[in-house]
Specification:
- The chain is of the alpha+beta class.
- Helix content is 33%, strand content 7%.
- The chain has ten helices and nine strands.
- Strand 4 and strand 5 form a beta hairpin.
- The chain is globular and about 45 Å long.
Length: 378
């Protein structure tokens, strides 16, 4: 049966743009350069979008802010001089392995349950004789784009205090199950093998398979494809670190941080669908700095769009009221790259653009940044 025709390119919401820059990761020598094992041998930290905010007066979500944070998107080799364990996996990594020399003892690695609790029949209707669906792992016509919208998921967040490590960590792990419910369903329907990512959450800092979290002076969580684990420091995200102010300076509502964790989960979706490997290989083949930058921005903005789809899917129960939706729009108009630093995640205007794209249109093909005009991914 011939493949389905490609979905029409997305039409992103309009807004101004800027022109970020990026220092590309380098390929390891030897067996690590083998394409089939690229994400097993090359540890790439997919860091989340960074705050570009000054302190907001009294938690008010409407004040103008100034850029202060330094973005990072560097390979493992540049993040730490210590070699990573060559064989960690998301299903076997322990809390101690995930945190390394963490500064505290409350790191959580939630990697033992890889089954979606609301979808327990996924292995009962398949047999060895059933032909496997041929997946398209390209950037522009990936099988994932046929998945459509995320289903509505019941995910009451409650009133977690982002300044409480225990409460914020519990909320992140709770909402991670909601992410599982939605993404597992639509990816499995397209024949994409789904598995739950691991989580390592600490109140201060630690070291994961792709390096320190957060990076020195940084705040951002990151997704490590090496062992499919999301690493985050709750205090850094909320209060900031070094020169970087925290997300709590943009809003004290927990939805902002949860949406950032949904962005990191978006990288896991890219990993499972083959988007990550294709992007990485294309980046390695690019011979220009500007070309590598453009690829990185499209990759990160797509994860933001996927994260927004999740926030839309839980909006009725989380809840994300119209006022809270506007808070998220404001939040994403204040995060992204800033002048004078490596710009690999996209301008604040385009982060806002692609968050709105995912939230308002809520279809995977609408997050196809690879077909979007360059002005919308700058």
């Amino acid at each position: 049966m011939p493949p389905a025709p490609p979905a029409p390119p997305p039409v992103p919401l309009q807004g101004p743009s800027s022109y970020p820059q990026w220092q590309p990761p380098r390929r390891r020598s030897g067996a690590g350069a083998v394409i089939g094992g690229i994400f097993g041998a090359i540890a790439v930290a997919f860091v989340g979008i960074i705050v570009v905010a000054a302190v907001l007066r009294g938690g008010d979500d409407s004040h103008m802010v100034s850029p202060v944070a330094l973005p990072t998107s560097t390979p493992y080799e540049a993040r730490t001089s210590e070699p990573a364990d060559p064989t960690p996996t998301a299903s076997t990594t322990s809390a101690a392995d995930a945190s390394g020399d963490s500064q505290d003892s409350d790191t959580t690695t939630d990697t033992t349950d890889t089954t979606n609790t609301t979808d327990t029949t996924d292995t009962t209707d398949t047999a060895d004789t059933r032909p496997r669906k041929v997946l398209n792992t390209s950037l522009t016509n990936n099988t994932l784009y046929r998945a459509g919208s995320l289903p509505r998921v019941s995910c009451p967040a409650g009133s977690a205090d982002i300044y409480s490590n225990a409460q914020l960590k519990a909320l992140i792990l709770k909402t991670s199950r909601c992410l599982d419910k939605g993404w597992a369903q639509i990816m499995r329907q397209q024949g994409i093998d789904w598995r739950r990512p691991g989580y390592a959450i600490t109140s201060t800092k630690g070291r994961g398979a792709c390096g320190d979290f957060p990076s020195a002076g940084g705040i951002v969580p990151y997704y490590c494809p090496r062992n499919e684990t999301i690493y985050a420091s709750t205090s850094a995200m909320v209060r900031g670190s070094g020169r970087s102010l925290g997300y709590g300076q943009l809003t004290n509502w927990h939805g902002g941080i949860v949406s950032m964790m949904a962005h990191e989960y978006g990288h896991h979706v890219q990993q499972l669908s083959g988007l990550s490997n294709t992007w990485w290989e294309k980046s390695l083949r690019s011979t220009s700095r500007s070309g590598k930058l453009a690829l990185s921005r499209r990759f990160e903005l797509q994860a933001t769009c996927f994260g927004a789809m999740f926030m839309r899917s839980v909006s009725a129960t989380y809840p994300v009221t119209p006022a809270r939706r506007d808070t998220l729009y404001y939040f994403y108009s204040r995060v992204g790259d800033w002048a004078g630093a490596p710009r690999d995640h996209g301008s604040p205007a385009n982060n806002n653009r692609w968050f709105r794209q995912g939230y308002e249109k809520n279809k995977t093909f609408q997050c196809n940044t690879w077909l979007a005009p360059a002005s919308t991914t700058s």
